Amino acid sequence: MTNWIRLPNSEGDCVGASATGGERPTYQRHVGRAGFQGPSAQIFHRHPPVGWAVFEGPLRPRAFDLAKLAPGPACPLQARRFLFSNTMEVRYWKTDAKMHALARNADGDTLLFVHHGEGSLFCDYGHLPYRDGDYILLPRGTAWRVEPSAPCEFLLIEATADAFGLPDPKTVAGGATIDPMLFTLPRIDDAFRAQQDEAFWEIHIKRKGQVSTLTYPYNPLDATGWEGDLCVAKVNWRDLSQQRNAGQKVPPAAYCTFVAKTFSVSTFIPKVGEGVSGILRVPFYHSNEDVDEFVFYHRGEFFSRGEIRAGMATFHPSGFPHGPHPKSYQEKMIKAPVETDEIAVMIDSRDVLSVDESIPDGAEWKAYVKTWEKAQETL
Ligand SMILES: [Fe+2]
């Protein structure tokens, strides 16, 4: 772990945009290292930190409308990959069909986030009903399948050659982390026993990115019971929200939900007290210098980005600041702040993230980089 050089200081006029009484308002930019868990500074700018006039070169913010991707395929291991690094892969999978084969990822743990729909997940450990807003953690090697009872859309986040863990309370700002009691585990119940049959079943196994198939003359999800401390588990953002609203006021880094060695998964959930006029909310302008950032917008109104809808995603590589569009900043953060109802999943990756360029043209909002061009106004 880096032994950071920390030099606490205050220089010049440090006046926030929330200031009143004649003090000059400014645009605040939060600069941080190590996913905001290292040294940080608040810089007070006269102009919007995203007020660039021209943007050239390969480094650019990008936005995608994942809802526009075609449904399928039948096997989630072969769902469209649209983002990856050396140590993680992100896929988007739309399905309304019962899986007739099992999936097993031998490359790493998989985190399923249910964007839309509901149904049943059957796995080595039993039956687990799911609904929108659930994270389902599938340990490496687990055999599983889903039976949707409504059209489903999933974000699949794979920690390649790695495992997901919970954030360490000692390193999370504010000391907040996830209560393990919030997780729900699969059950060996009637629904699980009812799907055990003597038909031929395939397990599709992904290893080194390639899929192989095992065929059994019976359903291998045939457990009669299990014991131990390894299993599939789920937690919903609503459960996290309940814990958070039980009186905790926390900084951005405390929204971290799952961690792997090179990246973290955070959940932005409705926050209490942010409708108070003059309270500056996250995400405000920021430069998270050690990470590439990916955000998937699940539901609610995304106050920081005027044109972003649920089902869309943005990618902000390290190297330049980002934050609210000027119109949103003025109207929703300064003039008439409201309680935010946005829910989003954020991946911060210390490994360089790449967009899989096989993503269809129609699913990318190519003009996204230009949406800040009117950010010239000065407070
Ligand atoms: Fe960010």
UniProtKB/TrEMBL annotation:
One Pfam family hit: HgmA_N
SUPFAM superfamilies from the UniProt entry: RmlC-like cupins
GO-annotated cellular components: cytoplasm
Keywords: Dioxygenase, Iron, Metal-binding, Oxidoreductase
Listed GO MF terms: homogentisate 1,2-dioxygenase activity; metal ion binding
Gene Ontology biological-process annotations: L-phenylalanine catabolic process; tyrosine metabolic process
Superkingdom in the source lineage: Bacteria
InterPro entries: HgmA_N, Homogentis_dOase, RmlC-like_jellyroll, RmlC_Cupin_sf
Binding site for Fe cation: H286, D292, H322
Needed cofactors: Fe cation
Binding-site residues for homogentisate, renumbered to this chain: H322
Keyword tRNA-binding listed: no
Alphabetical list of Gene3D superfamilies matching this protein: Jelly Rolls (2.60.120.10)
Residue ranges occupied by any Homogentisate 1,2-dioxygenase N-terminal domain in the UniProt entry: 87-231
Family from the record: Belongs to the homogentisate dioxygenase family.
PANTHER family referenced in this protein's UniProt entry, alphabetically: HOMOGENTISATE 1,2-DIOXYGENASE
Name of the featured protein: Dioxygenase
Organism: Thalassospira profundimaris
